[in-house]
Design a protein that fits this description.
1 helix; single chain; four-stranded antiparallel sheet; five-stranded antiparallel sheet
Length: 147
């Protein structure tokens, strides 16, 4: 497993994002709600602040992913999952939560609301061609490989 240093400013009073276990890929991120809790009714979404500002190394992104327990138990998820924080972004990391459940859900200050995964990425250099290499699947679409 690789290690990468990421600069971070924490303007909240909550712990930095952290791994729940040694082999976890995602770090838990806390809601920073100094003005008070935010209630999301069914179908509603809101931008939840974290108080975190990060500086990623060039060639890295930060992916924001839902927490499985919140999704399964309450229908709370990330509206643009996975969200992406680019290496040149310097603003506060905000989390777009949406309530897909049937009941209202109240997000509280300090609650773990998502997971953060830091990933290396590649830039694509397109090579335009007239034909693509042939495969056994060819243009079979969704569910085709299970037939």
């Amino acid at each position: 497993m690789d290690r990468v240093k990421v600069k971070i400013i924490n303007r909240s009073h909550h712990p930095l994002p952290s791994y729940g276990t040694f082999e976890a890929a995602g770090m838990d991120v806390h809601a920073y709600l100094p003005a008070g809790p935010v209630t999301l009714g069914p179908g509603q979404r809101a931008l939840i602040p974290t108080g975190l500002y990060i500086q990623l190394p060039q060639g890295y992104e930060c992916q924001i992913r839902p927490r499985s327990g919140l999704s399964l138990n309450y229908g709370l998820t990330i509206a643009n999952s996975p969200g992406t924080v680019d290496a040149d972004y310097r603003g506060e990391v905000g989390i777009i939560l949406i309530n897909l459940g049937q009941d209202s859900y109240t997000v509280k200050d300090g609650e773990r609301i998502c997971q953060m995964v830091i990933k290396q990425y590649s830039h694509v250099e397109w090579e335009e061609v007239e034909e693509l290499d042939r495969t056994k699947r060819e243009d079979g679409s969704f569910g085709h490989t299970g037939v």
